[in-house]
Amino acid sequence: MTAEFPFWQCGWLFGLEADQPIFVSTKVLSIRQMRQDEAAYIHNQAANFALSQSPLWVNSIKRFPYIYERRAVGPSLNTNDPRFAIILALLAEGEIQIPVHWTIAESPDFQMGASASSEIIELLFRFMNGRLHTVPISSIEHPARYVFPKLEPFFTGQLNEVVGLDQVIMERISIAKRSKIDAQDLVGIVNRATEICSALEYLFSEGSTSEIAFRLAMSLGWLLERTPVARERVITDLNKVYVLRSKRVHGARITETVREAVPHVRAIDLLLRRAAMVRLLGKYDDQKWVSLFKTARIGGITDDFDRAEWLDPSWRHLSPAQF
What we know:
The protein is an alpha+beta fold and 323 residues long. The chain has two domains: 5-156, no CATH class; 164-313, no CATH class. It contains twelve helices and eight strands. The protein has a six-stranded antiparallel β-sheet with strand order 3-4-5-1-6-7, covered by helices on one side. Strands 2-8 form a two-stranded parallel sheet. A hairpin with a 3-residue loop joins strand 3 (24-25) and strand 4 (29-33). Helix 9 runs antiparallel to helix 10 and helix 10 crosses helix 11. The longest helix is centred in the last third of the chain and has 22 residues, at 228-249.
């Protein structure tokens, strides 16, 4: 039997801004500002990409001063575990990536492991050109404190054994985030809308492509919302987003009217992230997930599951006990 040992897994949270001095700590993991030795370590990783003298790299460390850390147990020092990035992708509209990882074994018999992804070059380029949608830590503090304890099995178990996690949908959400929801970027809005639709079609796939937008609206509305008014709003929002998708798919001209769709794209983006979180928290495998949203569509859903309403910024004034 392979021996296992405890270690600390850490990573630089690129894109997470310190708009407030917030520290999030739970039993399974924490988000905190990096120490000077950790900042120096991250800076040293720039040498791998011939960026050690780059002011952009130095300024990025100052702009994004947070790291995450979690205690894990395993047979090896896994320096590139994606599960924390997966959760961060669901907590905010913007983008938080982890281009530098490192692990520290608690036993002196084992060495520190580290990895730095070449994606940092692309992240720095988009950040420099204003195309990276950064995330203030204050915007994720509330949902992080609420959901981290609920996800303890997700963070401590084997990733390939997590029920309810589909890494394809997470990859599609990550791809969507590369386009900002910004009224000044008309092409970006259309691209984000297109990728959101693609992710939703995958997440709510049931083998048929007929009337896909209608079935998606019914599934989202009845699964995630509680009132007729809110469900009607989902139908309106999704229809607007699908109009943008059609522009890209069919090569239609992108005009100034695209700006009017920004609130609709933002609303459907939130529903996509909520739906993915619902599946993860409920540990729904493929069969149970399809059964859940099909049952919701005919009004047969109950209230005994977490709808991830706490991801909605308008809910942030509530305490977890009120959800």
